[in-house]
């Protein structure tokens, strides 16, 4: 009897499992996922069974590991190429390599973009912000690998740029496409996009806190996420993966530094001003070079050849400009300065302190040219590594000058480290990211005070010169991305055409007043457009304009052209919501006509409808 009972229980249990499987199968057939891979089926099943927060944590882990692996692959690939060029080849042949490879890197990247990726070369952090603001955080799946290929060619062959921005874009694409696959909402898609970028940065620097700060400080400015745990989990996973898989010499690590001494605060105050001024110089030169390159009447390939030739010349004269430059910064902190000069043409001069100072000044001056020529002529990379390289060089130059002036116990290594944070804060407008990045990379949490001093001074100086990050300024000027205000973030994501009243009432300019009164009587609109035979806007009317004539005895002699008025402004379907609200504020009106660029009337748009759309989106973010 007991045996039969157990058998019945087993059958009932198996039947429940079978019914659960049938429901599971029906769910996937409903989503059209019959051909989905096994792991996708499992994740879809988890998405249906787990709570929202639980599934987001699982998603953060998977996105973080994937983005971290992408960062590990890219860093390892570029490191091996650099090592071969700079360590396995004799100096005389290195000069030939410095002539050929940087040129080849930019040209090959341009050819790759034009042939494999159909000219889609949007890159840098601005590309991520553009997708968040203008494309509902939907990033093309191509970017999950295109940025790795392009930046590996550019930086691996000597482009004077960084890998961190491409890694961030790759991670963002991974997070966005993951969210698209599992049909997550816009808010969750944005969160996982930021998680992927955060994991990429954490993997590149083995600095999870810096990765999180990067996401909140740059990508999600003004956006408050209550469930930020997936972001933290992704950054930790990306950092842990790089720590496990990357070799020690590939990691962005600094093991030598001095203990913080409050007597050295004056050094840090002066260095903060120095890095702030240099950051402004770097930004101005970058903008000038970008403008120059864009003004060239050349094909993309010829532009790449021009930029590659300039970069190759700079790398021959000053090898530290080759690639990311992290090895040079490590040499500064390890006291191997002479090795850097011995690999350059300055080795033919007698190496003295003055020689070192002149060499470092020229490297700093020309770095501001090498990076924009790399990026804007057709290469792929970012300003993370260049800003860190320039800041470390500036800190070392400042330390050498102080020693030559007779100052004792100059904290050389600390000045190099905090100099990196200072330049990064002023160039990227990311002081918190810079502070935690250097603190984590140097195990220098006792350096928080000098890091904060230098970073804040440099950042405030940068903000004084320009309130918007220069890397984003060109896109912001075109209205393609938002600035640092949360309301503009949301307003830019509104689609103007969704708020046009396409059923607005129109009346011909030759119609009688009686026809107008009949339209008012039978309609429910407060604003009317007066148009000609071709539906072109001639003027507008509202009830306040018409009310004085409702009981007038002069209606027989009135015409619409006498009582209509020219609108103080018109709206175009492609106008942005912030611009429309500004027009409403300037005119003091609540309804304005929308026309195309041939003045064909389309409908009316109201200020109320845009504000309601904004509030709905704000509610979506706060949920």
TrEMBL record:
Keywords: CBS domain, Chloride, Chloride channel, Ion channel, Ion transport, Membrane, Transmembrane, Transmembrane helix, Transport. CDD domains: CBS_pair_SF, Voltage_gated_ClC. It comes from the Bacteria. It is a multi-pass membrane protein. Residues 500-557, 564-620 form the CBS domain. Coiled coil: none annotated. The chain crosses the membrane at residues 55-75, 95-117, 191-216, 228-246, 267-284, 304-322, 354-378, 384-402, 414-437, 443-462. InterPro entries: CBS_dom, CBS_dom_sf, Cl-channel_core, ClC, ClC-type_chloride_channel. The keyword Transferase does not apply. It holds the Pfam family Voltage_CLC. It is found in: Membrane. This is Transporter.
């Amino acid at each position: 009897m007991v045996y039969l009972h157990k058998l019945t229980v087993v059958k009932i249990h198996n039947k429940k499992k079978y019914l659960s499987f049938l429901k599971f199968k029906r769910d996937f057939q409903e989503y059209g996922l019959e051909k989905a891979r096994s792991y996708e089926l499992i994740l879809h099943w988890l998405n249906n069974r787990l709570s929202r927060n639980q599934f987001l944590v699982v998603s953060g882990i998977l996105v973080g590991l994937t983005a971290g692996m992408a960062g590990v692959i890219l860093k390892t690939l570029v490191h091996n190429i650099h090592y071969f060029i700079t360590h396995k080849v004799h100096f005389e042949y290195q000069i030939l390599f410095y002539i050929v490879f940087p040129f080849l890197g930019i040209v090959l990247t341009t050819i790759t973009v034009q042939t494999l990726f159909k000219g889609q070369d949007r890159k840098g952090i601005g590309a991520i912000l553009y997708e968040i603001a203008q494309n509902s955080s939907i990033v093309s799946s191509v970017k999950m690998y295109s940025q790795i290929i392009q930046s590996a060619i550019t930086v691996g062959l000597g482009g004077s740029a960084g890998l961190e921005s491409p890694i961030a874009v790759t991670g963002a694409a991974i997070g966005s496409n993951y969210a698209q696959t599992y049909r997550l909402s816009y808010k969750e898609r944005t969160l996982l996009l930021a998680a992927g970028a955060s994991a990429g940065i954490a993997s590149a620097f083995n600095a999870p806190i810096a990765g999180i700060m990067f996401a909140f400080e740059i990508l999600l400015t003004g956006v408050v996420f209550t469930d930020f745990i997936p972001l933290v989990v992704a950054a930790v996973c990306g950092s842990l993966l790089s720590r496990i898989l990357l070799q020690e010499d590939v990691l962005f690590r600094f093991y030598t530094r001095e203990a913080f001494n409050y007597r050295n605060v004056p050094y840090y105050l002066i260095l903060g001003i120095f890095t702030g001024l240099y950051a402004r110089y770097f930004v101005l030169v970058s903008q000038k070079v970008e403008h120059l390159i864009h003004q060239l009447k050349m094909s993309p390939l010829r532009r790449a050849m021009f930029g590659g030739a300039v970069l190759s010349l700079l790398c021959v004269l000053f090898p530290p400009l080759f690639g990311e430059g992290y090895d040079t910064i490590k040499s500064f902190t390890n006291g191997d300065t002479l090795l850097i000069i011995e690999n350059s043409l300055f080795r033919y001069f007698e190496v003295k302190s003055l020689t070192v100072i002149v060499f470092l000044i020229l490297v700093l001056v020309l770095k501001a040219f090498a990076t924009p020529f790399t990026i804007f002529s057709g290469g792929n990379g970012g300003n993370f590594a260049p800003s860190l390289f320039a800041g470390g060089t500036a800190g070392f130059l400042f330390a050498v000058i102080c020693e030559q002036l007779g100052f004792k116990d100059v904290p050389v290594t600390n000045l190099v480290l905090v100099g990196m944070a200072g330049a990064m804060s002023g160039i990227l407008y990311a002081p918190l990211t810079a502070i935690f990045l250097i603190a984590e990379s140097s195990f220098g949490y006792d350096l928080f005070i000098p890091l904060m001093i230098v970073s804040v001074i440099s950042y405030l100086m940068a903000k004084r010169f320009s309130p918007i990050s220069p890397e984003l300024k060109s896109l912001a000027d075109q209205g393609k991305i938002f600035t640092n205000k949360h309301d503009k973030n949301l307003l830019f994501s509104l689609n103007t055409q969704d708020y046009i009243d396409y059923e607005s009432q129109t009346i011909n300019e030759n119609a009688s007043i009686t026809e107008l009164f009949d339209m008012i009587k039978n309609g429910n609109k407060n604003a009317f457009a007066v148009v000609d035979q071709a539906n072109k806007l001639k003027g507008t009317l509202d009830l306040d304009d018409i009310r004085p004539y409702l009981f007038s005895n002069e209606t027989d002699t009135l015409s619409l052209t006498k009582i209509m008025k020219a609108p103080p402004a018109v709206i175009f379907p492609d106008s942005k919501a912030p611009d429309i609200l500004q027009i409403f504020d300037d005119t003091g009106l609540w309804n304005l006509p929308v026309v195309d660029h041939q003045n064909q009337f389309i409908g009316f748009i109201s200020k109320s409808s845009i504000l309601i759309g904004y509030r709905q989106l704000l509610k979506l973010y706060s949920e």
